[in-house]
């Protein structure tokens, strides 16, 4: 296969996994990055993942930047599990312990944090403010601000809050996560109906004993994932907004892939502290015309980090 060869770092935040590319010196059109994302995310291919992350250059505020492409090639506004991984790469590349990172349409603060557990590289990130105005998504026909309200087109039984982080999230608190129902609603949104043309991430959240949250997300452009950082941030904020948990208190947010510690302010800023685990590094070729990956060579495996995370 004739392809473009990339150095990649396979990494994850809470089991939300990505191939990360240092793209600071790579020039590709958006459509070509979309093809790289499809190729490297394809689970039956040599790499597999929920999307790709690009470490990009900074700007007058930021030391470095992040772009993320979902598995389907779409480019969302942010990814807070991915940001921790990019932050690790960016902090290491710039020799800093904390920095501002540039995202597609916003900025976030990132810093190395105390390890969540021995050997678990941990990053703290602060993003926001969360926004309520669904005209930006757009989500039409349900008013401008949707807080704990029924969206009959999705379900007569659930109450959703619509929050942009700035990527769009529909958040519903439930007694117990019904995964089949989450997939059903996620797929309605994924179909990009006329009232929701840019789709949305959909999450069900349980408030568990001790004030912990459990969040399960059907992600736009991916499907069910092990975890979604922006959804965990949005859920923590909505828990405060709806009086389920206090603002400004650090809570444990569990997900299928592990956990993060999270807090949210009344102003809509969210802070997450979680892992940025490197599993392996290597090189892979991508045929841009076919969106196909091949010839993977793994050059180093980080068994110590994999084991440290498994212990969480
Ligand atoms: N997994 C991410 C969110 C990735 C983007 C999302 N699928 C979207 O399209 O908005 C996270 O950790 O925040």
TrEMBL record:
<dbReference type="GO" id="GO:0005829">
    <property type="term" value="C:cytosol"/>
</dbReference>
<feature type="active site" description="Proton acceptor">
    <location>
        <position position="228"/>
    </location>
</feature>
<keyword id="KW-0028">Amino-acid biosynthesis</keyword>
<keyword id="KW-0457">Lysine biosynthesis</keyword>
<dbReference type="GO" id="GO:0009089">
    <property type="term" value="P:lysine biosynthetic process via diaminopimelate"/>
</dbReference>
<feature type="site" description="Could be important to modulate the pK values of the two catalytic cysteine residues">
    <location>
        <position position="169"/>
    </location>
</feature>
<feature type="binding site">
    <location>
        <position position="70"/>
    </location>
    <ligand>
        <name>substrate</name>
    </ligand>
</feature>
<comment type="similarity">
    <text>Belongs to the diaminopimelate epimerase family.</text>
</comment>
<feature type="site" description="Could be important to modulate the pK values of the two catalytic cysteine residues">
    <location>
        <position position="219"/>
    </location>
</feature>
<comment type="subunit">
    <text>Homodimer.</text>
</comment>
<feature type="binding site">
    <location>
        <position position="167"/>
    </location>
    <ligand>
        <name>substrate</name>
    </ligand>
</feature>
<feature type="binding site">
    <location>
        <position position="16"/>
    </location>
    <ligand>
        <name>substrate</name>
    </ligand>
</feature>
<comment type="function">
    <text>Catalyzes the stereoinversion of LL-2,6-diaminopimelate (L,L-DAP) to meso-diaminopimelate (meso-DAP), a precursor of L-lysine and an essential component of the bacterial peptidoglycan.</text>
</comment>
<dbReference type="Pfam" id="PF01678">
    <property type="entry name" value="DAP_epimerase"/>
</dbReference>
<feature type="binding site">
    <location>
        <position position="201"/>
    </location>
    <ligand>
        <name>substrate</name>
    </ligand>
</feature>
<keyword id="KW-0413">Isomerase</keyword>
<dbReference type="GO" id="GO:0008837">
    <property type="term" value="F:diaminopimelate epimerase activity"/>
</dbReference>
<protein>
    <recommendedName>
        <fullName>Diaminopimelate epimerase</fullName>
        <ecNumber>5.1.1.7</ecNumber>
    </recommendedName>
</protein>
<feature type="binding site">
    <location>
        <begin position="229"/>
        <end position="230"/>
    </location>
    <ligand>
        <name>substrate</name>
    </ligand>
</feature>
<feature type="active site" description="Proton donor">
    <location>
        <position position="79"/>
    </location>
</feature>
<comment type="pathway">
    <text>Amino-acid biosynthesis; L-lysine biosynthesis via DAP pathway; DL-2,6-diaminopimelate from LL-2,6-diaminopimelate: step 1/1.</text>
</comment>
<dbReference type="InterPro" id="IPR001653">
    <property type="entry name" value="DAP_epimerase_DapF"/>
</dbReference>
<feature type="binding site">
    <location>
        <begin position="219"/>
        <end position="220"/>
    </location>
    <ligand>
        <name>substrate</name>
    </ligand>
</feature>
<keyword id="KW-0963">Cytoplasm</keyword>
